[in-house]
Amino acid sequence: MQTDLRGKHFITLQEWTREEIDTLLDIAYDLKRRKALGEKHHILEDKTFYMLFFEESTRTRNAFETGMTQLGGHAIYLTPKATQIGHGETPKDTVEVLGRFGNGIGIRNCTYKVGNAYMRELAKHAKIPVINMQCDLYHPTQALADIMTIQEKFGKNTRGLNFTISWTYAPKYVRPLSMPQSLILLMSRFGMNVTLAHPPEFHLLPDFVEQAKKNADDNGVQFNVVNDMDEACKDADVIYAKSWGPIAYTGSDTEGAELIDNYPNWVMDSRRMALGHKDAIYMHCMPADRGIEVTEEVMDGPQSVIYDEAENRLHTIKAILAATLK
Predict the structure, then answer these.
(1) Average pLDDT per block of 10 residues along the chain, 326 residues long
(2) What is the DSSP string of 60-115?
(3) Quick one: pLDDT at residue 252?
(4) pTM, to two decimals
(5) What 3-state class would DSSP assign to 274?
(6) At 64, phi and psi to the nearest 5?
(7) What is the sign of the dihedral through the CA atoms of 119, 210, 266 and 283?
């Protein structure tokens, strides 16, 4: 098993081998056990991790900051406004300097056609690992927590499970594509049959769909796209229902918001959960719009694993930090 991951960038799981991902999961399970037993695990004592947020966050920021503390290190919260980045400092200058101070840097930047490009520019010049805390294209830390959660519920051999990722109605703002794109890329690599469901205008970026199809072919499983939520939920073992914007269809937030309002019936409810297998689980990366995109009875029901999923953000993020920081 590949164990030497020091200094490796974590921008997308698609660029990590299955063996490397399994290594991270093994570390995450071990760190979760050690935390449960109250064992100190100061693997990163005297190490510093920079967290550069272009947007606000609840689970991601707190998982990284708490995780560094539990690992014996220190996390520093940064924003463009609170640094010279807001005054135009280049990615090269930023990462060259911070790389001489600390041991790793995480970036959260979901601006479409900007976020991932910014991370790639940082990584080009970085001598420390660059970790994607979510961008416009990928959300790898969440996807890693999701596969850990699925393994905990169904066993580590996930081959043959039916995984559905479905769009839902959530009108408050236009959400990025990073979550569904990360899920369709990863779950087929773990032997799951993946169904992607959305209204026609809410398709994902074509390159990502093609990559997901190839991942499925390479792993001998199915990948299907449907425009019917009920069809997608039938016989599912995992129903991951959340919203994203029609970003690949229109570049206009105004038009995007109007398109969302065309599909108010794309809601995750108990009727749709019943279309899946009797032991199916409901997943959501949160925050979820309660009573809008998902009913209270599903979100708080016995099939919901959203809080286990959220907790696993901590354990998997600690694994990433422990494995990669220099």
Answers:
(1) 89 98 98 98 98 95 98 97 94 97 98 97 98 98 98 98 98 92 98 98 98 98 98 98 95 85 97 98 97 97 98 98 97
(2) HHHHHHHHHHHTT-EEEEE-STTSGGGGT--HHHHHHHHHHH-SEEEEEE--TTTH
(3) 78
(4) 0.97
(5) coil
(6) -65, -45
(7) negative
Q: CA-CA distances (angstroms) from residue 73 to 41, 94, 145?
A: 11, 21, 21
Distance CA 11, CA 33 (A): 27
Enumerate residues 6+ apart whose C-beta is below 8 A from 95.
105, 122, 125, 126, 128, 130
Tokens of 227: 């425009």
For residue 287, cis peptide bond before it (omega within 30 degrees of 0)? yes
Residue 253's pLDDT is 77
How many angstroms separate the CA atoms of 210 and 206, rounded?
6
Cβ-based neighbours of 41, under 8 Å, separated by 6 or more = 31, 34, 35, 70, 71, 72
Torsion-angle region of 188 (φ positive above 0: left; ψ -120 to 50: alpha; else: beta): alpha
Query: Would you state the pLDDT for residue 2?
Result: 72
What does the radius of gyration of the chain's CA atoms come to, in whole angstroms? 19
Task: Give residue 122's pLDDT.
Answer: 97
Annotate 284-308 with DSSP letters as a single string.
--S---BTTTB-HHHHTSTTB-HHH
| Residue pair 196/184 in contact by the 8 Å Cβ criterion | yes
**CA–CA gap between residue 167 and residue 122 (Å, rounded):** 32
* Residue reference for tokens 């907790």: 311
Give the pLDDT confidence score for residue 147 in this predicted structure.
98
